[in-house]
Amino acid sequence: MVPLSVLDLAPVGEGSDAGAALRNSLDLARHAERLGYRRFWMAEHHSMPGIASAATSVALAFVGAGTSTIRIGAGGIMLPNHAPLAIAEQFGTLEALFPGRVDLGLGRAPGTDRAAAHALRRNLASDENRFPRDVVELIDYFRGGDGDERKVRAIPGEGQHVPLWILGSSLFGAQLAAMLGLPFAFASHFAPAMMAEATSVYRSGFRPSGQLDEPYVMLGFNIFAADTDAEAQLLATSLMQAFVNLRTGRPGKLPPPVPDYPETLPPTGRRMLEEVLSCSAIGSPETVEAQTRAFVARTGADELMVTSQIFDHEARLRSYEIAASLIAS
Fold first, then answer.
1. Superfamily of domain 1-162
2. Is 210 exposed, middle or buried (0-12, 13-18, 19+ CB in 10 A)?
3. Judging by beta carbons within 10 Å of its beta carbon (0-12, 13-18, 19+), is residue 288 exposed, middle or buried?
4. Taking the domains of the chain in order of start, what are their residue ranges?
5. What end-to-end distance do the CA atoms of the chain give, in Å?
6. CA–CA gap between residue 122 and residue 162 (Å, rounded)
7. pTM of this structure
8. pLDDT for 137-152, tens place per residue?
């Protein structure tokens, strides 16, 4: 079985708050560390009541201080929202605090809606076509090398070896990761439509770099694991409701599970859920193992980034525990 990692959005459940969500994230990271997961990544999203990881580097500092061996990182930082220098300093600081444990995944989407993107950037003059230049600028800040003659230096950050990843849900990120010789993480856990084509483009166009000799693909994968298939199907309805709420312009906190939720939707809603959750394993330990192994065999993934948006924290811990049994089996 390929290595498994964790993608956490610090979900804020109905009736809860951001503080509880972030403390749950730390608890999950410690749990994942004990279970043998390779990485614990958090994602940047803004203006979403159900996600508490907007200040991603701050949240990662909290998680890093409470763990000791698991890699921590961003999956990802939405670079158009930030000056590359600021990100080099933030993740340089994390690397200084937790040496050899920090990853930096970079995406070109805003991670929010147009209004929040405007509030973050103060204007919309920056366009997504600048993303490759921003990535190269960020690499340059980490590389350093010109000593005091450099006009602008990332301190901390300069000279540190923070592995960079390109995140994507289309061919754009695949092409950029291949060109720069960086590992590629595809958002198949919520946008699977172009997964096969993007990974093929990445692998065929890959150019070795100082960071990576061969292409490396990590795929997002939803796992809802429980003692029975029926229980796991029920747990998955929280994420289903969240997807429907988001797609209909009503983002909110993560709702509790609802029995037979898909049957309450019109056919268009059920088809949407079938598409966005097509890269998922939902069921008992035996069902999850079969579905996960089939996904790895079909895609050739080098690593899976597992996400489990489950309302009840104890059930979420249990889901990751069941999934972790795949590592050892």
1. Luciferase-like domain (3.20.20.30)
2. exposed
3. buried
4. 1-162
5. 7
6. 29
7. 0.94
8. 999 999 987 655 678 9
